[in-house]
Amino acid sequence: MVTSLQATTTLHNGVKMPWFGLGVFQVDDGEEVINSVKWALEHGYKSIDTAAIYKNEEGVGQAIKESGVPREELFITSKVWNGDQGYEETLKAFDTTLEKLGLEYLDLYLIHWPVPAQNKYKETWKAMEVLYKAGKIRAIGVSNFKEHHLDDLISEAEIVPMVNQVEYHPDLQQTSLHEFCKKHQIQLEAWSPLKQGQILADETITSIAKNHGKTTAQVVLRWDLQNGVVTIPKSVKKHRIHENADIFDFELTEEEMKMISQINKEERIGPDPDHFDKR
Length: 279
Known about the structure:
By secondary structure, the chain is α/β, with parallel strands linked by helices.
């Protein structure tokens, strides 16, 4: 059982990754992202997840600097964007990300989308392997990869991805992908774990929340963790950042876990990775 905000899972290369963190997708650079990250770090969060395309890496870096939390205690993730895929392009994009964050290394770097239409993710991965071996990234992984994308990548990769960050919530449970990742020791990580709030009115989850004296959001986030999925809910409100992390003093029963699993509709809120090719 994951019992604290600082609890970690061990990736297949031995690096420890927090089970819980703050995502900053659609958080404005400047004051909004600086405040969000600082509130999270002050509350005890250790993991922050950003990306080049979020255009807020500079604000994240400033918040880290101002927080006073020692760098080695933090787990910072960013991602290479679709238009920057390719070997040389990825090396350059990574340098830009580090510069914006004001950091000397990243804890985790991900390929943001497979973009099969441009078919560059293997070249991108080779660049990431080089950066990893050079000690500039502690762990490398992918985001939004389905089984066939992973199969294709692994067939030529020297290093198996350590993480696959995907859309994951009670309406989209991607069970076969999760099993594939377990088989290959790839840690699954959830983005949009609350389906941008759309899952919170679900009657089953609401009734379970009442049983525990918790919010529906807290129940869903607890469900993630008990399923062995790293989760990074986003919020720009201080009380919500605190509330999201208040999930370590209760446990869902096996029956409750099963009830939530039965909600599954395999319904996405984001794009299908097979067809998303925005550059």
